[in-house]
Design goal:
Structural class: alpha+beta
Distance between the termini: 56 Å
Number of strands: 35
Mean pLDDT: 92
Bound molecules: MU-OXO-diiron, calcium ion
Largest sheet: 9 strands, antiparallel
Shape: globular
Helix content: 10-25%
Strand content: 25-35%
């Protein structure tokens, strides 16, 4: 029977959103609750003792917000778009938003044009922009930083629009889904990253450089190296790669990071949806599958690539070397470092940073080169992490910096009710991280970082997405996008205060002494997203937010511009009744001191707004429109929609948002 889903079927997008929503944190079922509790109790005492240090800074934050400072926000907010047929991008008066780089656009010299009926072959797709643009970063060239750079764009996953006939699945035996090979190859080619050279021409217009030697596609089949503690480790070896040193491809690259040494960190988020293990007993005994929610039985959740590419079938096969591909899922969930300025660079998976459903890798550095890389693990009840490299960054010393991310300490965050918090080291031998609990050594801790964070008592969060760092204070912000199951397996707490949390919140913290290596911090909730009460009192309390300004739901993308404006990009379910007044997904801008939030951009119906980057002078900004639902960017009501990077500039050439 035919299980095809058409690209016109919005239910398909909804299902893809829903699968990254599954709660798979089995903390309560692992018998580690006692360890977590005792540690938490012990540390609570410490937290209370330092309340005295917290109060003065809270008071100073309050007085700062009351002082009559000029607002950082210098634009007129745009209205919410609640029409089901809205199909463009709106920005404030005085600004322009121009489609700049869409799925199917040529990347490599000689690439085919995009065919509007999606008839490009998979070989064409390897040379064109991938689908579902997500995190991205502009890397300036030193001599003309505001006129010339490389734009690196993640392609998180693929839509049924990729194929002329939609995505085809046929039912096979044992609940398996079969796939046409051409479609699978095209889907693999539409994942990964694009690297494109861009520059302002003599008329001041930004353009893509068509024949640039820097232009590159990295896909779900590009060879990558493994570095750090798990390089060549037995748990990384497969029938196809007996060395454990070469992995084909990167998948589900959601958000990202950029290092001070000008490399890109692509993050592998919902990799579990690409694998299946059909052996239930093995699955239950294998935390690197079960704790990460790899598919069980039948087919992988998203695309059933295993029907064509055997390495996505992670069922152990005792008759094959290395049991076939049972270790293949261990080779995903990493930070992948890419040097965009070296077109021959082999991307490296940095295993010292741990294996997560990794949303982002936000790099923060202080004046002494001390560094931390912050990540959210975006699933219900998962954690906020940071990685502190063993060595500081040294400006200009590329030999020293090149492998900085191969050694360091991974931590998970614990948020206490009193506004203090701490970083719990995921270091083998710590209480809970011992052989009795399934952690034979540090390799096991890194491979099952989620399980390690369970064991040490990290705080289960409402789906941590992007982390942003204030450019001067280094105050940190994380978007907790939503968690409709809050109050069930995970009770509400101070950091995740609403049951059935459909709108999400933004939490912020300050490391002690603003030191990225600190092991303690103070935190507060910056904003609860959501609705305002109506005259008839019809909004239930769990949906009420405390936004000072324009309404939004489900913050996801989060980034600071060089002046300290906080930009918030949303990924709400537009079909949910509780988003009727909030409308299409959008980008807003917040003043961190006054907490005023203004809506800057609204995207087309069906899209998530994600991915944000600037030139160093913040006079050009790029934002991604991911999976628009109608016909954007053609916006003619009939052309197949395409994920698109949008260029935003001011008509007077000024700083965006000021
Ligand atoms: Fe791909 Fe958590 O967003
Ligand atoms: Ca995201
Ligand atoms: Ca999304
Ligand atoms: Ca999201």
């Amino acid at each position: 029977s035919e299980l095809s889903m058409s690209w016109q079927n919005p239910e398909f997008h909804r299902q893809l959103e829903a699968v990254d929503d599954h709660s798979i944190n089995p903390t309560d079922k692992q018998g580690l609750g006692d360890i977590a509790l005792s540690r938490r109790t012990l540390l609570k005492g410490l937290g209370a003792a330092s309340l005295a240090t917290l109060l003065p800074s809270l008071l100073s934050a309050c007085s700062a917000s009351k002082s009559p400072q000029a607002s950082l926000l210098g634009f007129q907010s745009v209205a919410a778009q609640t029409s089901s047929t809205f199909d463009s991008v709106v920005v404030p008066a005085g600004y322009q938003a121009t489609p700049f780089f869409s799925w199917g656009d040529a990347v490599l010299p000689g690439a085919s044009d995009w065919h509007s009926d999606a008839s490009n072959s998979w070989e064409d797709q390897q040379m064109q922009a991938g689908d579902n643009h997500d995190g991205m970063h502009y890397f300036p060239f030193a001599d003309q930083p505001n006129e010339h750079g490389l734009l690196v764009v993640n392609h998180e996953y693929v839509n049924p629009t990729l194929h002329p006939e939609g995505m085809q699945f046929t039912a096979g035996p044992d609940n398996r889904r079969e796939r046409p090979a051409e479609q699978v190859h095209k889907e693999i080619a539409a994942h990964g990253l694009s690297i494109i050279e861009i520059r302002r021409n003599a008329n001041g217009q930004w353009q893509r450089v068509a024949d640039s030697p820097f232009n590159r596609r990295i896909t779900a089949s590009t060879p990558m190296a493994v570095s750090g503690p798990l390089a060549a480790h037995p748990t990384m070896r497969t029938e196809s790669d007996p060395t454990g040193l070469e992995i084909l491809g990167t998948i589900n690259n959601c958000s990202m990071g950029a290092t001070p040494w000008q490399t890109y960190l692509a993050c592998e988020e919902n990799f579990h949806n690409y694998f299946v293990n059909r052996d239930e007993a093995d699955y239950d005994a294998r935390p690197t599958h079960k704790r990460y929610g790899i598919g069980l039985g039948g087919s992988s959740r998203y695309y059933a690539w295993e029907a064509i590419e055997p390495r996505f079938n992670a069922t152990p096969d005792a008759s094959r070397p290395y049991q076939g591909h049972v270790n293949e899922p261990n080779r995903f969930g990493w930070v992948v470092e890419v040097d965009p300025f070296d077109p021959d660079h082999t991307p490296r998976k940095r295993t010292a940073m741990g294996r997560l459903g990794r949303e982002c890798a936000t790099c923060v550095i202080d004046d002494n080169g001390h560094m931390a890389v912050y990540s959210g693990d975006d699933a219900r009840g998962e954690y906020v992490y940071k990685f502190v490299p063993q060595q500081p960054y040294r400006a200009g010393d590329s030999a020293h910096n090149r492998d900085l991310l191969d050694a360091g300490t991974l931590y998970a965050a614990q948020f206490d009710a009193d506004g203090r918090g701490r970083w719990l080291p995921l270091r083998w031998g710590e209480p809970g991280l011992t052989p009795e609990n399934g952690f034979a050594d540090q390799h096991a801790v890194l491979l099952n970082a989620r399980g390690a964070a369970d064991a040490v008592g990290a705080t289960p969060m409402d789906r941590p997405e992007w982390v942003a760092s204030h450019p001067t204070t280094r105050e940190m912000y994380v978007s907790l996008t939503n968690n409709t199951e809050r109050g069930k397996a995970d009770p509400t707490d101070a950091a995740n205060p609403r049951e059935q949390n459909v709108h999400g919140q933004i939490l912020r913290w300050r490391e002690d002494d603003a030191d990225p290596r600190a092991t303690e911090f103070e935190w507060d909730l910056f904003v609860l997203a959501g609705e305002r009460q109506k005259a008839d009192n019809s909004i239930p309390s769990h949906r009420l937010g405390n936004i000072n300004g324009d309404l939004f739901s489900s913050p996801d993308g989060l980034a600071f511009d060089p002046d300290g404006r906080l930009w918030i990009l949303t990924d709400a379910d537009e079909q949910a009744p509780y988003t009727a007044d909030i409308g299409c997904n959008q980008m807003l801008c917040a003043d961190p001191l006054s907490r005023e939030i203004r809506r800057f951009l609204v995207g087309p119906r069906g899209a998530e707004i994600t991915g944000i980057t600037w030139t160093p002078d913040a006079r050009a900004m790029w934002v991604n429109v991911q999976h628009p639902g109608i016909s954007y960017p053609a916006s003619d009501g009939k052309t197949r929609p395409r994920s698109t990077t949008v260029l935003i500039t001011r008509e007077d050439g000024g700083v965006i948002g000021s």
